[in-house]
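VanZ-like domain-containing protein, pasting as requested.
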Amino acid sequence: MSDYPILAALGITVGTGCFLAILVPLLIVQYWRYGRLSATRLLGTAAVSVYLCSLIAFTLFPLPTVAEACGLRTGPILQAIPFGFVADIAEEAAKTSLPGALTGFVTLQVVLNVVLFVPFGILARGMTHRGVAFTTAAGFGLSLLVEATQYSGVWGLYPCGFRVADVDDLMTNTAGALIGALLAPLGVGWIRPAAALRTAAPPAVNAPRRLLGMALDWFAFTTVAVIATVVLMAAKVLMLGQDATQATAPTSIEQGLAALVAAVLVLAVPALVGSGASVGQRLVGIAPVWANGHSSLPRSLLRASAVGGVYAAGRVLPALLDGWPLLPGLISGVSGLVVLVAVISALIGDHRGLSGWVSGARMVDRRRLLSPGSTL
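Structure tokens follow.
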């Protein structure tokens, strides 16, 4: 019992960390599916993350040693008699008193098993907007997974049942999920349904969405450049028969070639496919459109190179011109200035940004291209 505050703090801390770790993918999914961010669904997801981590903490931790968990016994342990806790409470009442039994450990554990799954019922129904039966069945399934984990000794981690797998726990957990499902409309009715977000009219592209797309473009470019550098270094080691531990750092030429590969794969290729949107724009559901509603190869390439191409040149040319006085630094400085202007321009006006102004494109939600009869 004294461990409960520590376990609660552990669940909150780890759950918050897990939510922050998946925050960017969550933003991408929301922009792609809905064209907008839903603060209520993000908050609900954070609550789910904290709850699941807390559930793991309360049902598995603190982890004992094998000797502490098993002692002289081996194999799983199962309490398969329904309502066995009633006999335990009656036995405790015979030893003490009925009020004492009703406030004792056995009763408290039953109550805690119910309370532990009430948040699940609230969150599961609030996030999925499914019915009471579905939510209760999901609670049963989750509780069954917990009991199976305990019965199997954390799936073989322990040679005995990690804790007693109890059918009463399964029943009381499911009851808690049912109570939570019934309370959900009062507790989390403010969470907007995913279906309503999907069917809402596509919104105008805003500054945060544009900035996230630009950040994803930078991340994609950097990742491909790093992978290309590793491949070039590995190829050099194999071709020269070197020991990998003795391989030297990549040369400026190799870094420039890696950046060139990234420019082709991340900037040029996406401009030639579909709407011509960049990798980051596609991930957040943005598409460039022109006055007549159709793109062309020259305009798509111009849009891709107006900022991305200049940034890539700032990575490629200085590496290839290493040793020239002033020129590499000048190119890098101009490239950085263009990127800064692009970021600022994405924050103002209609958020088309520098690449849109140069190529004549506007940025719209991708679903506008899929809506018959939509006006761009």
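Note for the archive: The two ends are 62 Å apart (CA to CA).
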